[in-house]
């Protein structure tokens, strides 16, 4: 806004003062990251159980899994930024190991990629022989619409090192994707993205979040309030080969 008004002044567009120049906004406070300790998990679990009970009473029937997940996602967490323990991460990744997106979850949990960065990863930016991946694109959401673009900040445009097990997972994923390409034939979309649907189209970010919630339920995290943004370091302190 300030920039636009300054241009208007220079172009003599009927204004001689830029009010935006004297507007001072307070510095945004960064939320403090907290670890999901046993105590925090227990407190969150009690809140979830209370909300589930209220929802069931209001409906007069047992909740479907989809309804339970909606309630699960609505319960406030101790901080906007929560972090899994290594044990939580190990359990989740072990459960996800056979899923077609297991390599995606490894990249988020162990290499620190944001959801949009993982979904936007391209094969041309991945060098499995060197064990590196370039994070140069992301897919985010504008409302519901997926939007492709550069990473969030200049520092986010980076090259990351891949551990040996993640390289192995990505090789298996590429082999599976090649088989899907062969099965799809002319219906395949050669998008170039590492993670796609069964006909080659890039994943919608919300697809990943929705599946994450389902996986978290399967491993018993419905009592813990974990979300995909929680799978950040210190998860990376897991020993190599442990997952």
UniProtKB/TrEMBL annotation:
InterPro entries: DNA_brk_join_enz, Integrase-like_cat_sf, Integrase_catalytic
Keyword Membrane among UniProt keywords: no
One Gene Ontology MF term: DNA binding
Gene3D superfamilies, alphabetized: Intergrase catalytic core (1.10.443.10)
Keyword Repeat: no
Domain Tyr recombinase residue range list: 79-243
UniProt GO BP: DNA integration; DNA recombination
Key words, A-Z: DNA recombination
PROSITE patterns per UniProt: TYR_RECOMBINASE
Highest taxon in the source lineage: Bacteria
Entry protein name: Tyr recombinase domain-containing protein
């Amino acid at each position: 806004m300030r920039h636009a008004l300054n241009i208007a002044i220079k172009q003599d567009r009927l204004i001689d003062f830029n009010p935006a120049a004297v507007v001072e906004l307070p510095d945004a406070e960064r939320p403090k990251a907290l670890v999901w300790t046993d105590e925090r998990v227990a407190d969150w679990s009690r809140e979830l159980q209370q909300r589930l009970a209220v929802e069931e009473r209001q409906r007069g029937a047992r909740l479907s899994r989809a309804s339970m997940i909606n309630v699960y996602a609505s319960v406030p967490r101790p901080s906007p930024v929560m972090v899994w323990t290594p044990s939580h991460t190990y359990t989740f990744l072990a459960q996800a190991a056979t899923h077609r997106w297991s390599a995606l979850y490894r990249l988020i949990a162990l290499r620190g990629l944001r959801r949009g960065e993982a979904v936007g990863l391209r094969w041309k930016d991945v060098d499995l022989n060197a064990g590196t991946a370039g994070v140069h694109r992301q897919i985010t959401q504008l409302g519901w619409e997926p939007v492709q673009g550069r990473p969030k900040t200049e520092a986010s445009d980076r090259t990351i090192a891949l551990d040996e097990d993640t390289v192995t997972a990505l090789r298996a994923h590429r082999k599976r994707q090649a088989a899907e390409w062969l099965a799809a034939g002319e219906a395949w979309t050669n998008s170039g993205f590492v993670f796609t649907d069964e006909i080659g189209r890039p994943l919608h970010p919300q697809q990943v979040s929705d599946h994450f919630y389902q996986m978290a339920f399967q491993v018993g995290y419905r009592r813990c309030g974990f979300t995909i943004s929680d799978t950040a370091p210190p998860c990376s302190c897991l020993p190599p080969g442990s997952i």
